[in-house]
Design brief:
The chain has five helices and six strands; from the N terminus they run E-E-E-H-H-E-H-E-H-E-H. Strands 1, 2, 3, 4, 5 and 6 form a six-stranded mixed beta sheet that branches. The chain has 171 residues and is of the alpha/beta class. It starts with a strand and ends with a helix. A hairpin with a 3-residue loop joins strand 1 and strand 2.
């Protein structure tokens, strides 16, 4: 059995902040909006990056409320026995880290996809994770999915997860 996973959030030099996670399994589609850590301290440069991404890219507000990171961990535990399909190194890294603190520390990782691939590998070390980016890039335009936020589908984890599922069929 398989699951398909997509994320959206903020990529910063020191860490990655997850704001959305979407998972498709044979039984269900799960889409979660994630609250930012309460003790998060951003530098001026990081604050500028987050504001830019909110205004011009993903439309996600850092302070929007959602589930906490413990709920994300529970979701990952529910799918850890499945073969996971993700797109790019960033998503791959996300599912494979032993436990979620409150954000991903990425030290010296500048590529978004590389960062998440490693994150998955560290959270779920015994789970088979397949990167669909090996079959090509995500299209620049994705189908609109109604995730509860008004934002460009290219920056919506729900829109991405359906594309990850489609791309996995060509592996």
């Amino acid at each position: 059995m398989s699951a398909y996973v997509a994320l959206e959030g903020f990529v910063l030099k020191r860490f990655y902040i997850i704001k959305e996670i979407s998972v498709i399994t044979e039984q269900e589609v799960t889409h979660l909006h994630v609250s930012a850590p309460t003790n998060l301290q951003l530098t001026r440069e990081e604050s500028v990056t987050v504001r830019y991404a909110t205004r011009h890219l993903n439309g996600l507000n850092l302070n929007d409320q959602g589930v906490n990171y413990e709920e994300v961990q529970k979701l990952l535990e529910r799918i850890s026995h499945l073969q996971l399909y993700v797109h790019g190194n960033a998503a791959f890294k996300f599912v494979q880290v032993p436990r979620i603190n409150f954000f991903l520390k990425v030290s010296n990782v500048f590529c978004y996809w590389h960062c998440l691939i490693n994150f998955f590998q560290e959270r779920l070390p015994n789970t088979i994770v397949i990167d669909t980016s090996l079959t090509g890039k995500l299209p620049t335009t994705l189908q609109t999915r109604h995730c509860g936020k008004v934002h460009n589908p290219r920056y919506c984890s729900l829109a991405k997860v359906y594309e990850v599922k489609r791309m996995s069929q060509s592996l």
